[in-house]
Amino acid sequence: xxxxxxxxxxxxxxxxxxISRVDxxxxxxxxxxxxxxxxFPGMVHAAMVKAGHPHASIVDIDIxxxxxxxxxxxxxxxxxxxxxxxxxxxxxxxxxxxxxxxxYEADCIALVVAETPYLARRAAELVKVTFENLPHISSLxxxxxxxxxxxxxxxxxxxxxxxxxxxxxxxxxxxxHVVEAEFHTPVQEHAxxxxxxxxxxxxxxxxxIWVAAQCPFYVRDAVARCLGARLADxxxxxxxxxxxxxxxxxxxxxxxxxLAVLARQIGRPVKMVLTREEDILYTSKRHPMKLTYRxxxxxxxxxxxxxxxxxxxxxxxxxxxxxxxxxxxxxxxxPYEIPNVRILTRGYYTNTVPKGAMRGFGTxxxxxxxxxxxxxxxxxxxxxxxxxxxxxxxxxxSRTATDQVLKDSVGLPETIRRAKKHFAGPWSRxxxxxxxxxxxxxxxxxxxxxxxxxxLDRGAARVEILKDGSINVWVGCTDMGQGARTVLAQIVAxxxxxxxxxxxxxxxxxxIIADSGPTVASRTTVVSGNAILDACSKLKxxxxxxxxxxxxxxxxxxxKGAFVAESGKALDFKKVxxxxxxxxxxxxxxxxxxxxxxxxxxxxxGDAYYVYSYATDVAEVEVDTETGEIxxxxxxxxxxxxxxxxxxLAEGQVEGGIAQGIGFALHEMFSxxxxxxxxxxxxxxxxxxxxxxxxxxxxxxVERLSRDGPFGAKGLGEPAIIPVAAAIANAVSxxxxxxxxxxxxxxxxxxxQSITS
Length: 757
Ligand code: MTE
Fold this sequence. Notes:
By secondary structure, this protein is an alpha+beta fold. It has three domains: 24-32 and 458-594, Aldehyde Oxidoreductase, domain 4, CATH 3.30.365; 35-134 and 196-273, Aldehyde oxidase/xanthine dehydrogenase, a/b hammerhead (Aldehyde Oxidoreductase, domain 3), CATH 3.90.1170; 289-451 and 600-756, 2-Layer Sandwich (Aldehyde Oxidoreductase, domain 4). It contains 17 helices and 29 strands. A seven-stranded mixed β-sheet has the order 3-5-1-12-9-10-11, sandwiched between helices. Strands 7-15-14-13-8 form a five-stranded mixed β-sheet. The protein is globular and about 80 Å long. The structure holds ligand MTE. Ligand MTE binds next to α13 and α15. Residues 243-246, 359, 480-482, 484, 519-525, 653, 656, 715, 717-718 line the site of ligand MTE.
């Protein structure tokens, strides 16, 4: 294996160190300024006029009463959009402002602006929209029914993806054990701390957008499109993000485009921050899915086929569903070698809140189904569940479901070995009215955008060494809480041989840095990290040459703030920088990175992603069969995410992912009734608290270096959550001797199983 970028200059010094977050103090002391804390002179506030109906035709929009509220500044509707009234990111199915039809209860019809948020909300209630109600559909089954109500005129099928490898019939004929089962997974809400918000500030021809968005370049595209402006007329300044988890991928673009239309019309800065209720009603969620699986193996445990149907509710608009469901399809057959695979994925429109990106991006659902079937096959074949996975696990040289040959960095077998070491003894046992069970789940995760997003898969960095030796860095990916700014500062400091304190990684500014695609798919460390290394290599060429001139001998390396010459002489980094300034040498450099190309053919075969991260989780649960309570006694997560740049932040990511996965498995219930969301706040939509997490949680890393990653890194942010619910469901199934087929696992379900067993 060739060495990963950034590994040749010297032995690593800061990479792999537990460095505190660069933004830790300012966040924990309340100093960080979020959208809600920021204002501009003359700023006014906007509020949305929402449909209130799941499906209806708009007959009339009467705004005449709005001006009766003093302090109201204006109203905009579809008629006021100077550019295109469209915001669909992949499919062009979504209007910026609904003008003739609404398709879910929070569809936005108008924006009202007033001197205070309170007045804006009051005035928004005075916009009188006359509707003609249409029948609506709120479930997958409704959407698929013959003669179903059509959410869009071209039918309810929004997305279709497939993979066909080998022949299922051959796999079936070679299988000694076959398991067939249907699974259901729920909607999941992101529940980030900070709700979606933004400020649009008009400056002459330029429209400045200040926003907490994961993807500032998506925001720029949407604002320019809706204003009918040039991309150069829009500047997006990213503010600190109070959590995104995928929920701030495309949604901020819609909010910002509406604010920009308003700001352009009234010529004043306009701000809007959604209330928690608005955020829950309006913003996208994790897709609920129905998963139908049939898989078979030999007596020896070797898997022979996987025949899978994934059906997802995409909600009222497709938003990111085509890409999310691409990922579901690629990962549906699990991290296993299976010669015959058939996967069909379909996403259907319903009159419900759009489903889109959420941490794991369509994989926690399929991993739950796949790992449940794998566990059932292991039971049928009477093979230990970890051993069963080891028999089938992808290894270096294996072929995936898309027939991709894995050439690099495949740590799955080692994650399984580590899990075996941690857990010994029976997989279930009974004691004093309680039953205990252990469950395993393995996963793989394609890093970055893969074949479905290859045209966007690049990233930029700008590194500038200032005359005092401090270093300003801009990248095109954002830090939404995962700690990217710290990890990237470590990469800069490592490569330039300076301290992390010398490095300032700035928030994204689209006027300063080139379009780097979205901050999703756990790609920041790889894409921004590699772009940084590219920029640093240009700077090092200059610095080495000047340091060489200064020392009179060749420079062999740079470490701990000094250049080391062949003569043994050390030159202070800051002195070399000062010399460059005296010589009027530019110490700023641009870096660029293009992710290795991936493509699939019409059967869905080929290289889906350039590299994969892997994990094996094991959960031990105690189930009280009388109360239905499930307590997680012990949880182990073993991850191969390549080189771990900062173990402390990496552990934090995995621990956070486990907590979020526990919510998905046991607690979070997004209830909708008759086209309306019933759980409209965080007292009715319950996420786990510290008391609901685990008695014991351990995190381990297997560092299988990737030749394309900075210092060998891959991605970790999303893998952290992906196998969690599956491991818990398998543990509960082992404990009760009944297969969990539906998430979340409720107390009622547990009690029912105990009564009927
Ligand atoms: N961690 C925190 N604290 N907050 C977040 O919003 N988002 C997750 C994950 N971890 C998130 C998080 C998601 S959805 C992604 S894609 C990755 O972080 C992005 O991180 P990376 O690109 O740096 O791997």
